[in-house]
From TrEMBL, chains A, B:
<keyword id="KW-0479">Metal-binding</keyword>
<keyword id="KW-0812">Transmembrane</keyword>
<feature type="transmembrane region" description="Helical">
    <location>
        <begin position="371"/>
        <end position="392"/>
    </location>
</feature>
<feature type="transmembrane region" description="Helical">
    <location>
        <begin position="297"/>
        <end position="317"/>
    </location>
</feature>
<feature type="domain" description="CBS">
    <location>
        <begin position="214"/>
        <end position="270"/>
    </location>
</feature>
<dbReference type="InterPro" id="IPR006667">
    <property type="entry name" value="SLC41_membr_dom"/>
</dbReference>
<feature type="transmembrane region" description="Helical">
    <location>
        <begin position="436"/>
        <end position="459"/>
    </location>
</feature>
<comment type="similarity">
    <text>Belongs to the SLC41A transporter family.</text>
</comment>
<dbReference type="InterPro" id="IPR006669">
    <property type="entry name" value="MgtE_transporter"/>
</dbReference>
<feature type="transmembrane region" description="Helical">
    <location>
        <begin position="323"/>
        <end position="350"/>
    </location>
</feature>
<keyword id="KW-0129">CBS domain</keyword>
<dbReference type="Pfam" id="PF03448">
    <property type="entry name" value="MgtE_N"/>
</dbReference>
<keyword id="KW-1133">Transmembrane helix</keyword>
<dbReference type="Pfam" id="PF01769">
    <property type="entry name" value="MgtE"/>
</dbReference>
<dbReference type="InterPro" id="IPR006668">
    <property type="entry name" value="Mg_transptr_MgtE_intracell_dom"/>
</dbReference>
<dbReference type="GO" id="GO:0015095">
    <property type="term" value="F:magnesium ion transmembrane transporter activity"/>
</dbReference>
<feature type="domain" description="CBS">
    <location>
        <begin position="148"/>
        <end position="213"/>
    </location>
</feature>
Length: 463, 463
C-alpha cells in the first residue's frame, strides 16, 4: 500500500461548495493543484462537485486534469454520467482518458455513448486496444465477458521461475494495479493450461519451469457465463478471480470477485428502483427535465389504466355506495391495508428467490405459507376494522361487511403477493417491475368487490 | 487455485429433492459420501436442502459432517439460520464447528445466539480464540471491528526476508486461505509500522530486513470506523484489504474489501425489505408461523391508524360524496396515482443519497427539481383523468374537479416524496422505513381533501 494520500499543497478547501473550488482551480490553478484538491475530497464529494457544474464547466475540469487523473475521477461516477461527460469532450481528449481506464470500464463507458461517439474514440486508440474494447463491448454487463479485465499476469508454460522474476522486475510499474496473487499459464497456442499461486515462487529453485509448478485443470468460465453462475462460483470457492476462456480454451481475461459483487449490488439497486416505478434506467436529478418527466410518465400512464379496473368496480356498485355512504370511508382503508399485506408477501418472495431458498416452481408451497399468515393477520385486521366501523357508525352489519371484506382480501393479497414473483420469474419476466402494479390492481378490484358486493347482499340491514 | 472440485464418488444425485438425499446420506452414508454430495450441490441448493429439513434432521446432517465441512456448509446460510442450527447442536459439536469458521463469521453467528448458548460455546473454545471472538462480538456488524478478520500475515520488522520465507514454508497450510498480497509489519510492541507487498520479496536479497523493505505509514482504520468510512476508503483506493489498529496503533485485524461489499449489499437488501413493510429483520418462510405473523402485523397495525386519517377526510365530506356519487369512482384513481408519483420521487432521493449526489440538507434544491417534474406529469395525468371523468359522466365540472385535484396532488406527492427521505436522514431516522407510509398517508389525505373540497365548492354545478 502506498503511503498516505494527504496533499502537501496548501489548497483552500471549500467544504461547503466544492464545485466552486473545483472550477476555480480548473480555470486558474495548475493540473497538480487541481488533482491535489480532487484527491482529498471523498469520492462522494467528487461526484457531487462535478454534478453541480454545467456542461462547459465539466469540460474545463476534465481538460485541466491529466488523463490518468481524469480517468480516476470519472470512474467514481455513475456510468451514465461518466459516458455523458466523455461525450462532451473533443475526441482526442476523450480517447486519452479512456486509454487510462481499466479494460472493463472502457467497454462499459463506450457502450453508453452513441455509436458515432464511441467509434470516433475507438479510432484514436491503439489498434490492439481498440479491438480488445470492441470485443468486450459485445458482451452484456451481467455476463462474464462484460465483467472481465485483461490486466493479469500471463506467462508461458515453458518459462522458468527466473524468467518470471525477470518479467516482474522489468514490468513492475505496469503490473502495479494487477491482482498478483495468481498468474495464468498458457501454452504456445494461448490456451490456459494452469494457474500459479505467485507466493510459491518464493520456495522453489529459479530454474524450475512453470509447467511443473502450476496447478493444472484450473476452473474457468466462458465469456457468456451469467451473473448467477459467477455468484455461485465465488460463493462456492474462496477465489479472488476466475479466468475466462473461449471455446478453444484460449485465455481471454479474468473476472474479479469484486466485479461480481459490484454487478450483484447494481442488480439489487436496479430492482429497488424498478419496484418503485423508476423503470427506464437510472434517474439522476441532474438529467434533463424532459427525460425525467417522460420516463416517469410512461410508467404512470400504464398505472392509470390499471386503476380504471378498480374504479369500474365502484362504478358498478354506485347505487349501493350512495345508499350506504359510510362504506366510502372504509374503501381506502381496505384497499391500502390489503396492499400493505401483499407488498410484505412480495418482498419475502423476492428475498427468498434471490437467496435460492425457493424455486420458481414451488408456488403451491409458497401459497400455503402465505395463506397461513393471511388467515391470522386477516382475522386480526378484519376484527380491528369491524370495531372501528361499529364505533363510527353504530350499525353492526357495517362492521360485519368491512371486517369480512378485509379478512378475505388480506388472504387474497398475500396469496397474490407471494406467488406472482415466482410466476413471473418462472416465465422469464422481471418480477421486480411487474409484481407491484399487478398486486395493487387485483387487490383493489377484489377489495372493492368484496365490500360493495357484500353490502349489496345485506343492503336492507345497512340502510 | 486447486484443481476442479468434481466429486469422484458415485453418489446418486437426487436433483428434485436434494433434502431427501442429504438426509439419507447423513443417516446411512459415510461423512465422506455426505461431504461429496454437499459439495457438488450449488450453494443455493445447499441452503434450500437444509431449510427443508426439520430440526432433528438438520442436527443429524450437521453431526454427520466433519466439523470443517459443517462450518463451510452453514457459512452459506443467512446468518439467522446458521445461528439457529448451531443452537440445536450439543455444545461440543457446535464449538468444534465454530472453531473451523473464520473469525468474523464466528463473531457474527455467536452474536445471533442467546447469551447462554454463546457463552457455553465460547467456554469450549481455546482461551485465546474465545477472547478474540468476545472482542470481535463487541462490535456492530457495520463497523470495521465487526468486519475484520485476524487471519493475516503478520511479521516483525526485525525479521529478514529469509525468516519470512521460512515462516511461509513452515505455515503454508495455515496460510492457504489468507490474502497473501500484503504482509503487515509490526514493531516489538505489536504496533503496525508498515505494509509489505509480498511480490517484492522476489526481487531482494534474502538477508534484507523487513524494516528496510516495507512501506511506512500505511493507511489504517480504527475498529469503530463505520461502513460508510470503509466504503469511501475502498472507493478511493485499489486496496484489497485495510488494517485495523487500536488507539495505541496495535494491529488488531484486517478488513477485506469483499467484507465491505457484502455489508453494503446487506444494507441495500435490508432497505428494500423495510420499504416494503418487513421491518422486524429477515423473514424466511421456514421461520415459525407466529413469528412471521406477529412481525408483519406490528407494521400493518401502525398503517391502519395512519389510514384512519385519510378515511376521516372522506367521513367529513360524506354529504358531498353522497350527492355526487361519481366522485367515489375517482377517489382511488387519484390516491393511487399520487402514491405512484410520490414513490418515484422517494426512490430517486434514496438513490441520490446513497450515491452521495445529494446532501440531506439540500431539501430546497430537491424540492424544486421534483416540483418541475410534478408540474409536467401532474398536468398530463390531470388532463387524462379529466377526460376519463367527462367520458364517464358527461359533466365537464366533474372533469375539472378531478383533473385539478390530481394535478395538485401530484405536485404535493412528488414534493413530499423527494424531500422526506432527506429530512428523515438529516435528523437521524431511517429513510427506508418511514418514507413510504408517511408519503401514502399524507398524499391520500390531501388527495381526498382536494377532490371533495373542490366538489363541495362547486356542488351546484355537479349535481
Amino acid at each position: 500500500m502506498p503511503s498516505s494520500d494527504a496533499p502537501t499543497s496548501n489548497v483552500a478547501i471549500a467544504e461547503d461548495r466544492p464545485w466552486e473550488e473545483l472550477l476555480r482551480l480548473a480555470q486558474e490553478g495548475t493540473s497538480v493543484e487541481l488533482e491535489d484538491y480532487v484527491s482529498q475530497l471523498s469520492t462522494a464529494d467528487q461526484c457531487l462537485a462535478l454534478s453541480r457544474l454545467d456542461e462547459a464547466e465539466e469540460t474545463q475540469v476534465l481538460e485541466a486534469l491529466k488523463a490518468e487523473d481524469a480517468a480516476e475521477l470519472i470512474s467514481h461516477l455513475p456510468e451514465v454520467e461518466a459516458a455523458r461527460m466523455l461525450g462532451l469532450l473533443d475526441t482526442s481528449t476523450a480517447a486519452a482518458i479512456v486509454q487510462e481506464m481499466p479494460s472493463d470500464e472502457q467497454a462499459d463507458v463506450l457502450g453508453d455513448l452513441s455509436d458515432a461517439q464511441a467509434e470516433a474514440i475507438l479510432d484514436e486508440l491503439p489498434r490492439e486496444e481498440a479491438a480488445a474494447v470492441r470485443e468486450l463491448s459485445s458482451y452484456d454487463d451481467d455476463e462474464a465477458g462484460g465483467m472481465m479485465v485483461r490486466e493479469m499476469l500471463r506467462f508461458s508454460d515453458q518459462m522458468s521461475v527466473r524468467d518470471v522474476i525477470q518479467d516482474l522486475s522489468d514490468h513492475g510499474e505496469d503490473y502495479s494495479d494487477f491482482d498478483v496473487r495468481y498468474a495464468y499459464v498458457c501454452d504456445s497456442d494461448d490456451r490456459l493450461v494452469g494457474v500459479l499461486p505467485m507466493q510459491n515462487l518464493l520456495f522453489v529453485k529459479r530454474a524450475e519451469r512453470l509447467a511443473d509448478l502450476m496447478i493444472v485443470n484450473p476452473i474457468s468460465v466462458q465469456a457468456k457465463a451469467s451473473l448467477d453462475d459467477l455468484v455461485e462460483l465465488f460463493d462456492a470457492h474462496n477465489y479472488l478471480a476466475v479466468p475466462v476462456v473461449d471455446e478453444e480454451g484460449k485465455l481471454q481475461g479474468i473476472v474479479h470477485r469484486e466485479a461480481v459483487d459490484y454487478e450483484e449490488t447494481r442488480a439489487i439497486e436496479s430492482d429497488y428502483l424498478k419496484s418503485q416505478g423508476i423503470v427506464g434506467g437510472e434517474e439522476l436529478r441532474t438529467m434533463p427535465l424532459w427525460l425525467r418527466a417522460k420516463r416517469r410518465l410512461s410508467w404512470l400512464s400504464i398505472n392509470v389504466f390499471l386503476n380504471i379496473g378498480a374504479a369500474a368496480v365502484i362504478a358498478y356498485f354506485q347505487d349501493t355506495l350512495q345508499a350506504v355512504i359510510a362504506l366510502a370511508v372504509f374503501l381506502p382503508i381496505i384497499s391500502d391495508m390489503s396492499g400493505c399485506s401483499g407488498n410484505q408477501a412480495v418482498a419475502v418472495s423476492m428475498r427468498e428467490l434471490s437467496l435460492g431458498l425457493v424455486r420458481p416452481t414451488e408456488m403451491l408451497r409458497v401459497w400455503w405459507q402465505e395463506v397461513s399468515v393471511g388467515l391470522i393477520n386477516g382475522a386480526a385486521l378484519g376484527l380491528l376494522v369491524a370495531i372501528l366501523a361499529v364505533l363510527f357508525n353504530g350499525n353492526p352489519y357495517l362492521g360485519i361487511v368491512v371486517g369480512i371484506a378485509l379478512f378475505t382480501n388480506t388472504i387474497i393479497a398475500v396469496s397474490i403477493g407471494g406467488v406472482v414473483p415466482l410466476l413471473l420469474k418462472r416465465f422469464g419476466f422481471d418480477p421486480a417491475v411487474a409484481s407491484g402494479p399487478l398486486l395493487t390492481t387485483v387487490t383493489d378490484m377484489c377489495g372493492f368487490f368484496l365490500v360493495l358486493g357484500l353490502a349489496t347482499m345485506m343492503l336492507s340491514k345497512l340502510i
